Protein backbone atom coordinates (compact mmCIF):
# COMPACT_ATOMS: atom_id res chain seq x y z
CA UNK A 1 0.00 0.00 0.00
CA UNK A 2 1.42 3.37 -0.97
CA UNK A 3 0.90 6.54 0.97
CA UNK A 4 1.27 10.17 0.00
CA UNK A 5 4.58 11.78 0.93
CA UNK A 6 4.50 14.10 3.89
CA UNK A 7 6.64 17.06 4.81
CA UNK A 8 8.32 19.40 2.40
CA UNK A 9 7.74 17.59 -0.92
CA UNK A 10 9.18 20.49 -2.91
CA UNK A 11 12.60 20.09 -1.27
CA UNK A 12 12.62 16.38 -2.19
CA UNK A 13 11.87 17.23 -5.80
CA UNK A 14 14.48 20.02 -5.78
CA UNK A 15 17.07 17.61 -4.39
CA UNK A 16 16.20 15.08 -7.11
CA UNK A 17 16.76 17.72 -9.81
CA UNK A 18 19.92 19.11 -8.17
CA UNK A 19 21.42 15.61 -8.00
CA UNK A 20 21.02 15.42 -11.77
CA UNK A 21 22.63 18.80 -12.50
CA UNK A 22 19.55 21.03 -12.76
CA UNK A 23 19.29 24.44 -11.12
CA UNK A 24 16.52 24.65 -8.54
CA UNK A 25 16.78 28.23 -7.31
CA UNK A 26 13.76 30.49 -7.75
CA UNK A 27 14.20 32.87 -10.68
CA UNK A 28 13.10 36.45 -10.08
CA UNK A 29 13.43 39.87 -11.63
CA UNK A 30 16.99 41.18 -11.89
CA UNK A 31 17.52 44.70 -10.52
CA UNK A 32 18.80 47.20 -13.09
CA UNK A 33 19.32 50.72 -11.72
CA UNK A 34 15.74 51.90 -11.08
CA UNK A 35 14.06 49.25 -13.25
CA UNK A 36 13.38 45.51 -13.25
CA UNK A 37 14.99 43.33 -15.91
CA UNK A 38 13.37 40.16 -17.19
CA UNK A 39 15.71 37.16 -16.70
CA UNK A 40 14.34 35.50 -19.85
CA UNK A 41 14.62 38.20 -22.52
CA UNK A 42 16.36 41.12 -20.79
CA UNK A 43 13.43 43.52 -21.23
CA UNK A 44 13.38 46.50 -18.82
CA UNK A 45 10.23 47.36 -16.87
CA UNK A 46 9.02 49.73 -14.15
CA UNK A 47 9.34 48.51 -10.57
CA UNK A 48 5.57 47.92 -10.45
CA UNK A 49 5.61 45.37 -13.31
CA UNK A 50 4.39 41.87 -12.50
CA UNK A 51 4.77 40.36 -15.98
CA UNK A 52 7.19 40.96 -18.86
CA UNK A 53 5.44 42.83 -21.65
CA UNK A 54 8.03 41.57 -24.15
CA UNK A 55 7.98 37.79 -23.65
CA UNK A 56 5.21 37.25 -21.06
CA UNK A 57 7.49 35.85 -18.32
CA UNK A 58 6.32 36.21 -14.72
CA UNK A 59 7.78 34.98 -11.44
Describe the structure.
With 59 residues, this protein is an alpha+beta fold. Helices cover 19% and strands 14% of the residues. Strand 2 (35-37) and strand 3 form a beta hairpin.
String of helices and strands: HEEE
Mean of pLDDT: 82
The gross shape turns out to be: elongated
Oligomeric nature of the chains: single chain
Query: Based on DSSP secondary structure assignment, what is the total number of beta strands?
Result: 3
N-to-C terminal Cα separation, in Å? 38 Å
- Class derived from helix and strand content: alpha+beta
Strand order of the largest sheet: 1-2-3
Radius of gyration: 17 Å
Largest β sheet strand count, sense and barrel closure: 3 strands, antiparallel
Q: What's this, in brief?
A:
By secondary structure, the protein is an alpha+beta fold. The protein has one helix spanning 9-19; strands at residues 30-32, 35-37, 44-45.
SSE blueprint:
Blueprint: H1 9-19, E1 30-32, E2 35-37, E3 44-45
Antiparallel strand pairs: 1-2, 2-3
Amino acid sequence: MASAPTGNDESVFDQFLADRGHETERVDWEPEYNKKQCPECGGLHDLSASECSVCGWHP
